[in-house]
Amino acid sequence: MCGIAGMIDLTSGRRPAPQGVVAAMAQAIYHRGPDEEGFLEEPGLHLVNRRLSIVGLADGRQPISNEDQTIWTVFNGEFFDYPEQRALLEKKGHRFRTHTDTELLPHLWEDHGIGMLDQLRGQYAICVWDSRTHEFLIARDRSGICPLFYATVRHDGTDWLLFASEMKALFASGLVTPKADLRGLNHIFTFFAMPGPITVFDGIAMLAPGRYLHIKPGSGSPEVLLQQRVYWQVEYPDYGQEEYGHSPRKVIDEYERLLQAAVNRRLRADVPVVSYLSGGVDSSLVVALANKALGRAIPTFTISIQEKSLNEENEALGVARALGCEPVIVKVGANELRTGYPELIGAAEIPVIDTSCLGLMHLAKSVHANGYKVALTGEGADEWLAGYPWFKINKLTGWMNNIPGIPLGYWVRKLGMKLSGQPMFSRAIVEQAQNEIGGHNGWLDLYGVMGVNKLRFFTPEVQSQVLPLSPYDDLGLNPNLRRWHPFHRQMYLGARIMLPGHLLTSKGDRVAMHSSVEARYAFLDEDLLAYTATLHPRWKLRGVLKDKYVERKVAERWLPREVAHRWKKMFRAPMDSWIESTTGERWIDQVLSPESLRKTGYFDADAVTAARQRLGTMRKTVARTSVEMGLTAVVATQLWHHLYISGELADIPSRLPVRAKVA
Question: Helices 182-191 and 622-641 sit at what angle, rounded to 10 degrees?
């Protein structure tokens, strides 16, 4: 992977970019590409790439052009079918000068124009410029593995588009000022994720997965030019048209074939590839298939959580021994949470509520420290194959939401919330959310546990602004979702929200690339996803307890049975295990002080103080989990505000950038 950034004159005046701006943007994302830097500066545009060299080590410097230098590109990511695509293009007469997969882009543009997006396979964020027509294509991969952010600014009489792999590069330009967007915080306190296109910063948009911008400067206003267009989105068969799989062996064989091919492709690199290994079925199966492809044991890296109930070290070591691997063990505990949380928020650029992300950050650091750049991971299977407990709960209780004219599910939840002393949204708000996503599903139960913290902690002023807004309105959901099996609607919601908004960002790209490590996701392979989508829900959740059914049947062929059927452990460190500092980490008390809470204006100081005081006495119930998640979100938001907006809430360094001096 790499980091890309650029500046485009949207008025077609083709003015030179302000001196020093793009160079400052590139420096802000140095960690994404410490190996090499390249610029292209032409009238009306300035492009830059920070390179992490993985394919074509000696000659992959970007930007890269076609033969006559009329089409240029910068690229972050990997095209895993590069050898096959290159061979096809060479047969058509295209000439390649390098050994890097980046060079596919200008040639594919020559042949297909925007249609090239249908040809791309892999993980990517790209910008292509055609100097003949002075048009730009900016696009992001289908799952949302590689990030891309952009903003428009008015400078010296011209509208400029600034884009970059990370938002800190936009701030480093000196043209974009970090300011909170309450719509984005509404997403954080609903989804505990930032799925896009809305971000937590006012004026900054995220290019959503499977979307692109086609820009012809001078052909319209910035609002018109920057309309996100869909080239791919998740599609399921119409209800009743799913592949039932009357021949189980055929279904299992095909899933195994596609997953093996996905792993094989993600082992392609001119540097060694390693793998994360948790001891669960997903990462263990990836390691087993990687070993088969390599003909040897792949190096593995494992987190050891220093909390007895959450520690999977023994399980991971057991898998490693069974597969012949020698794992590197990375220990992470409460002290690492206290000391590392500011670094995590700084890397992610958003309030991060899932404390397991810190473990992944330390894991990537260890990969880098051991001299590696590329790591396979098992992320992605749970969203596509119903790996989370709320899918099972919904299958048991979902009937309550399907009685025409009787909102039994709402009444039962309301009674439970009342008995546990929790606030609850009105029936109108709940029904609006259900209508927007095609009915109730398991994700709504989870988001309800998190979302009530808007009622619990937001100030009345913030509530008056965000509660009338539906966060689902911002997502651009697939209009076909009502035609699908209800089970598949919840699969889709995870693929649209959880994957790009959390697992592939604050738990994926951001913490990995913070240490110059590229994560690769076999379960998000295009062919595998397309096949999985066709399968009947019974291949994803069989009965109530047998989740990830087709994957586990494949895993039985490669792993000990206890590993193939091991239940998923949800790591989230209990807040009272780390929020009370005994090691001199004063920043927690500082960002949660009434003075700091009043300065940001997001949260009711009395409510936060009271919840913090009673947290330790609460029993381990859903109510406690809700309060815990809410308090973690408050801490994360306050810390994020200090790091990126004010720098005045705590005695720790902020991430306010050294901004370019713009002439």
Answer: 150
The token pair at 22 is: 């793009």
338/350 Cα distance (integer angstroms) = 17
> Amino acid letter at 37?
E
Q: Is residue 149 part of a domain?
A: yes
- For residue 219, count other CB atoms closer than 10 A to its CB: 11
Q: Which residues pair with 6 in a beta bridge?
A: 47, 163
DSSP, residue by residue, 165-230: SSHHHHHHTTS----B-HHHHHHHHHHSS--SSB-SBTT-EEPPTTEEEEE-TTSS-HHHHT--EE
Token pair recorded at residue 124: 């990517």
- What is the pTM (predicted TM-score) of this model? 0.94
Q: Is 525 within a domain?
A: yes
Specify whether 40 is located in the same domain as 185: yes
CA angle 516, 522, 528 (to 5 degrees): 150
The type of residue at 303 is I
Contact (CB, 8 A) for 452 and 444: no
Q: Are residues 259 and 359 in the same domain?
A: yes
- Taking the C-alpha atoms of residue 83 and residue 50, their distance in angstroms, rounded to an integer, is 23
| Tally of domains within the chain | 2
What CA–CA distance (Å, rounded) separates 547 from 180?
39
Whether 263 and 522 have beta carbons less than 8 Å apart is answered as yes
224 with 319, same domain: the answer is no
Helix or strand or coil: residue 477? coil
CATH code of 520's domain = 3.40.50.620
pLDDT tens for each residue of 146-196: 999 999 999 988 999 999 999 999 999 999 999 999 999 999 999 999 999
Find the largest Cα–Cα distance for the chain.
72
CB atoms within 10 A of CB 111: 13
Q: Which two tokens stand for residue 638?
A: 């306050």
**Tokens 């392979």 sit at which residue?**
525
Is the domain of 163 the same as that of 37? Answer: yes
Alpha carbon distance 133, 113 (integer Å): 12
The CA-atom distances, in angstroms, between 374 and each of 367, 377, 379, 589 are 8, 10, 15, 38
Structure tokens at 504: 């592939």
Q: Yes or no: say if 2 and 32 are a contact pair by the CB < 8 Å rule.
A: yes
Distance CA 357, CA 340 (A): 11
Amino acid sitting at position 225: L
The answer to whether 657 touches 168, Cβ cutoff 8 Å, is yes
Residue 58 lies in a domain: yes
What count of other Cβ atoms lies within 10 Å of the Cβ of residue 321?
A: 11
What tokens does 140 get? 């992001």
6-37 pLDDT tens trace: 999 999 878 899 999 999 999 999 999 999 99
The answer to whether residues 48 and 147 belong to one domain is yes
pLDDT higher at 308 or 248: 248
Neighbour-count burial of 429, counting CB atoms closer than 10 A to its CB (0-12 exposed, 13-18 middle, 19+ buried)? middle
Residue 656 structure tokens: 């306010």
> Looking at the structure, do residues 105 and 181 belong to the same domain, yes or no?
yes
Q: Which residues contact 370 (CB under 8 A, 6 or more apart)?
A: 274, 299, 301, 328
Under 8 Å between Cβ of 384 and 529? yes
Residue 265 lies in a domain: yes
